[in-house]
Amino acid sequence: xxxxxxxxxxxxxxxxxxxxxxxxxxxxxxxxxxxxxxxxxxxxxxxxxxxxxxxxxxxxxxxxxxxxxxxxxxxxxxxxxxxxxxxxxxxxxxxxxxxxxxxxxxxxxxxxxxxxxxxxxxxxxxxxxxxxxxxxxxxxxxxxxxxxxxxxxxxxxxxxxxxxxxxxxxxxxxxxxxxxxxxxxxxxxxxxxxxxxxxxxxxxxxxxxxxxxxxxxxxxxxxxxxxxxxxxxxxxxxxxxxxxxxxxxxxxxxxxxxxxxxxxxxxxxxxxxxxxxxxxxxxxxxxxxxxxxxxxxxxxxxxxxxxxxxxxxxxxxxxxxxxxxxxxxxxxx
Amino acid sequence: xxxxxxxxxxxxxxxxxxxxxxxxxxxxxxxxxxxxxxxxxxxxxxxxxxxxxxxxxxxxxxxxxxxxxxxxxxxxxxxxxxxxxxxxxxxxxxxxxxxxxxxxxxxxxxxxxxxxxxxxxxxxxxxxxxxxxxxxxxxxxxxxxxxxxxxxxxxxxxxxxxxxxxxxxxxxxxxxxxxxxxxxxxxxxxxxxxxxxxxxxxxxxxxxxxxxxxxxxxxxxxxxxxxxxxxxxxxxxxxxxxxxxxxxxxxxxxxxxxxxxxxxxxxxxxxxxxxxxxxxxxxxxxxxxxxxxxxxxxxxxxxxxxxxxxxxxxxxxxxxxxxxxxxxxxxxx
DNA sequence: TCACGACGTGGAACCGCTTCCACGCACGAC
DNA sequence: GTCGTGCGTGGAAGCGGTTCCACGTCGTGA
Lengths: 333, 333
Description:
The structure is a homodimer. Chain A is α/β, with parallel strands linked by helices. In chain A, about 45% of the residues lie in helices and about 15% in strands. The first copy, chain A, has helices spanning about 5-10, 15-20, 30-45, 50-55, 70-85, 100-110, 130-135, 160-170, 190-205, 225-235, 250-260, 280-285, 290-310; strands spanning about 60-65, 90-95, 120, 140-145, 150-155, 175-180, 215-220, 240-245, 270-275, 285-290, 315-320, 325. In chain A, the strands form two sheets. A six-stranded parallel β-sheet of chain A has the order 2-1-3-4-5-11, sandwiched between helices. In chain A, strands 7-6-8-9-10-12 form a six-stranded mixed β-sheet, with helices on both faces. The longest helix of chain A is centred in the C-terminal third of the chain and has 18 residues, at about 290-310. The mean pLDDT of chain A is about 95. At the A-B interface, helix 4, helix 5, strand 2, helix 6 and helix 12 of A face helix 4, helix 5, strand 2, helix 6 and helix 12 of B. The structure holds a DNA duplex.
């Protein structure tokens, strides 16, 4: 491995000068610069990122803490993150979170600028203590699809999303509308589902429809689970004529349950989801689209900007628009 | 930030001793170990990965070079990689490749143990020179869904996959079978599609069916493109009664084209894809399943093992099984 | 009693880079 | 001619670890 002093010796200059050339310092004569660059090219020299990082106290890496499996939509967001980083000088470190222990371990590790210069926390509300620690340590953080006190975030209005979905069903004439969502106390503390449910209840109330707890089911954020829950819901007496699933993944489970029971969708049961993941277009699932890719993109851009300016990202919440996408799984009651 | 010497001072020992405790060296007395551990816990000390990496010459990081956007199936493989890393001490660095320039830049950077200790190259045949350079530099490499001379790899028999798909259509009585695949010379040099096409031609020949170039279309690995190509194919005179798309993504494009033209699938046109990505189950797409998750998992495991043993991974090719998954887009002619 | 290991330990050197400080030199002003 | 002044440069210190070497201090066997 060729090092900076190899280059220095070969070029007949000091290591400091090579470093200055490398970092575009103006305090190098044109002649020296040219000579050094020639040697660098000749030797195929590339600076060692760890040495550089150790010396500078930052590592040109962005960390993304993501429930990579748990949330299908997180992948789409990560695509946006990757896109933002493509033309930056930063590398991307992926921290896959499955459990709260996992998450806390990662966040503790990352509460220092020696593993990542900035942090993207995706689709997962971090514990407030962790956020405080991160802020104190001066690690820039942007939350994507989550909010936290004093921290920049990118997301959507989930309550409004719940309203949009439910309103769509109400406007189609449905009176008995079911809801399938995440368990209120899930291990990683996801709250989107609860917010969407709130929107659902608001619209029911506004439409003068009673809120019937029997029409609501909660479970893990998973297609299979949603399938079981909605199977149960559909078999009950006086079943709903429409179901709002708090995510597309769950919505697809609902559709499957309905079909298994010989129900036509949307003839016998209307189904609306949330997210608009790639799958949904093929499945024809009516849904509330949130800009997944864009959320990752924007989040990463905010972080890069903050790093550029060497100040923490403004603790604003950036709200991205939601949009009703009507496909073929919803119809008049 | 608390450093190793802070711990050393506080514990009243030398920095070397703290390091020995940290690394589980047996050359530390039990009493000292306990004292140091207490101080570490007390101070909340965590070793700086960059300093450690610089000193040890390795960085406890695995790099994954992946066409993250271009290949939908790559995400599923990455899930396997992430799973394998979950209970290892390694972090995961994601290098998203969009263009050959991108790829070569990454591979050049990674031809040193200072950014990643080992490399997973996913769904992308690396240039032979890069592989040689990597080997010379002693960077362990495992190819996932690709093969390369002298390098460990995990993959499937694409030719056989092409045979399986085509045979299924032939057995259903189809005589005019179309093929939609990647452009033979695509920027990143993907070859799977070509291999699958070879299997297609073999089975046609074995079945005594003529190979008709008019039934074959090539284009970018993309749903939209496949849609256009198959639209063209279906509108031609004497169109096929079945189409083998060399990936599910393309297969979904074919289905869309058929439906746009008012054809029933599989009534008027049978469609079979390849991969069995998550989407396909919902779309009811008949396909040849390859173990995507498992390929990433195995690839990462091989790499971790090699790192453990401190020798390059055996340059074997690990072949994973393929499986025909019949759903609702194929039917008798 | 002495020599010799083994053991536990401190400390220096080193990993490869950045950055600060000091120095030599050319130049212009007096 | 002398004295700043500023530029270009070399070199040392430092980033935070690991590891090697040397140095007591015991306990053991001759």
